[in-house]
Batch of 3 targets.
Target 1
Amino acid sequence: MAGNQIVGVHAIPAVSGFYADDQRAIKQGAAQNGFAYDGDPVTEGFERIREAGEALTVELELANGTIATGDCAAVQYSGAGGRDPLFRAADYRPVVEGPVADELRGRDPAEFETLAGAVENLPAERSGGDRLHSAVRYGVSQALLDAAAQTRGVTKTDVIADAVGTEPATEPIPVFGQSGDDRQTNAEKMLLKRVGVLPHGLFNSVEKVGAEGESLLEYLTWLSGRTDELGTGGNAKADSPDYRPRFHVDVYGILGEVFGPPYDRREVVEYFERLAEAAAPYPLQVEGPMDAGSRAGQIEQMATLRNALATADVPVDLVADEWCNTLDDVRAFVDAGAADVVQVKTPDLGGIQRSAAAVTYCEGTDVRAYLGGTCNETATSARACAHVALATDAAQILAKPGMGFDEGYMLVTNEMRRATARRERRNGAPAPAPETAVPTGDSDD
């Protein structure tokens, strides 16, 4: 609307959907005691190894009386793998209501790209880097996206698509469910709901993977069999007999601790071949096989393993996560051919427009983009990311926040269905019939 302006910027401390964990302490053997961990934290900023997650709601007050919102949130493993430090809402509330507010007051909320870029380039405040903490940029950009969509009278999908020059997807993107430690029960829930990609698994310690990787093999064997039973067996819906999900497990660099470099030797390749056999007939992708301690090292080791698997014709795709945090990181991994899939870890990239740019950077390459994030986000940020996935036609999107699966899957799926239906109505085409099956995860689109 002509003459509309941002007249107020407010920040409200909030809670996130999960917890912040000191990943370095956990990898060094911190013992889990119930839901907490025993021992002292080793990553700067942590007071305990597991702490309650925090968020910061950003409200943009517009001259026409409407309110646009976004949530600042950071990843579960803050301060690890080159990421920004632990996010505390109280530290960054004055930043949002100070320099960020000064930048945005009086500006036209319809100008999403301009305003998001201006916030992205504000000088650092308490983040220890060149820019504002990634969580601040993330939350403010969500609020700007909401404000632009309201002002323009379009969906957030349309705003993002205009910003990056894409044609949005016409159907919901395959959703990737995450199980947490309850990896069997939650996987069964995913199968019953026909989730496209599953189950994440949370294999973040040698104990969970197995001293020789045997526990991961056993789990994939179980998962394949259970998928046969619940996905294509007697319980399969008559109208979705061809459900064939993609398996995706995150090992947090632990396979690097089990085997160690070099990753093109026979022992390692044969282990990945056994993983593929355990998952068969379902396609498999493994996230973060090792953690090399630096971006350059990670790219080199991931590329070495990927080339070795390709040479041996082992059908396991590798997903970049550790040291693939920023837009520049994503570009570096893609350019080096160091992964089959890159996770675009939305809170780490800062402004949500940068996540969209990261996904589109994969177009025309043999690398797929997974619009990820963290269990430690909020409903607001998850819904915003659903529009980024639709606008860029990402390969998959994470069900978030939380580790209970059902809630995050509901939030992301329903937001995509609403957005696609609204765009269909606006374009004059009949709305699609309610889905009876979630798209399968074995497409390379």
Target 2
Amino acid sequence: MGSGGIHLSLPSKMREKIEYWLMLAVARGLGRMPRGLGRWLAGLLAWGVYRWMSRLRRVGERNLGLALPALTAAERDCILQGVFRHLGWQLVEFCRMPRYTAENTRGWIRTEGLEHYVAAQARGKGVLVLTGHLGAWELSSFYHSLMGYPMGMVIRPLDNRRLDDFVNGIRCMHGNKVLPKDEFARGLLTAMHAGETVGILMDTNMTPPQGVFARFFGVAACTASGLARVALKTGAAVLPGFLLWEPGEGQYVLHFGPELVMARSGDAEADILAATQQCNDALESWIRRYPDQWLWIHRRWKTRLAGEPKIY
């Protein structure tokens, strides 16, 4: 029995090593080549993946048909190609992040609305940055820390521990911290009581009881309610934050929107649902402005209300 257990564990360990070394090779290769060349290669790879990964493409088409039904087939295709292109560009940025400094990013990243963040931070009750898989989300928190504003990030650990350590080592080079999802509530409350900042990706499909159903592009979507619960409990500020590619400028812009004002009626569950809906509305408004930079290939509406048919 003992030798059988060892035999069964070897393939998993070997797979982890192969994944780690492959990622390391890609990261070093893309990280060392000129940024323009890396983005061109990543764009070429993204186009191939878009054509090859028909399952993901179908999910994207289904989501776009559900959320933006007025789009033509050609418009949906254009948006989805943009999604894959921006994912490729983000891979390049992630691989180059260890080389970035406040000085060498000044010519192609700027901030807009930073005053909203500074004012929220000054209140001393903590800041919850409402964000999602829109734009360059990995570079967003990294750049924020690079400019002297480190933050916590709620992230699901990767199954490959070696790879997880490698990725988090880059994410946290300038003071950021990772809050694992299994310690979500405790970590958030501790951070808010300490007046810290935490970014939360709030645009993924959830299941009850971690999620509540709120409208997203007019369709009921099971949405994480933890941000709303913590904000209402602690008085922490909530404001949208996204690092988005601005084609007209040829650069990324880290946008901070105005703080969301969350009302309290005395009915705790109703307040949580209303605050969660506010977050979804804010996310939707930003996605509508930059539709080709959101992760449409995620099965966002997978969890359904009782009795409703499956979407995917």
Target 3
Amino acid sequence: MNNATIQLKIKQRLNKLASNDYDNIECWNIVEAFNKGQADWCRRNLHGINLPKEGDEASTSRIDDLQVLITNYTPNLVSGDTYYETATVIPGDYLRYKRISAKVLDKCCPSPRPMVVYLAEQGNIDILLRDVNKKPSFDWAETFATFMDNRMQIYTNGEFTIDSVTFTYYRQPRKIQIAGCVDPYTQVASTIDIECEFKDDLVELLVDEAVKILAGDIESTIQMERASNSVEQNN
């Protein structure tokens, strides 16, 4: 769905197509509300805070809607005594964790071996390293990873070396831009159109998300309630 259609639909839902009063909606209002709306929608549905209580990959609908945001990142690693840490911080577009895949090496096994990597809590590191059933093991091809200071640590306990890591995560949705629209925060006009990357049926819900935000801003209660009900009932 192109940006002109999105603007038209939002103004229509707000009943502002022919309004000349002080409640006119500027293009930057629409851009800001739509981008906030899609970010809110993604966080809510990844977590499962919706009417059907469906979170990340809990149904084919969630998979269909959110798969466009899944991306891979291959970080450089710095070795330590008990773990390897990513040399750079987590990508700036990071939204939600998905999984970590690693290939490891051992003296008796020079070919990279796939390793199952579980996400663990920082507070349980000492316990996990001592637990014979949960500590890093080359024989069982299992280990755990943690996050701290926007970096990822994959634990080896000195038993093996890590050859490569692939970090799979949900990135933030691409923000739309409307050509010629001046951002009031930066005073810079957009030179190009950047359209929403989601499929059209989901964009319809995101339009309602934006309408809900804008209607609340201008204290238009009826439009806000209609949009809020619509976005959840059709989710």
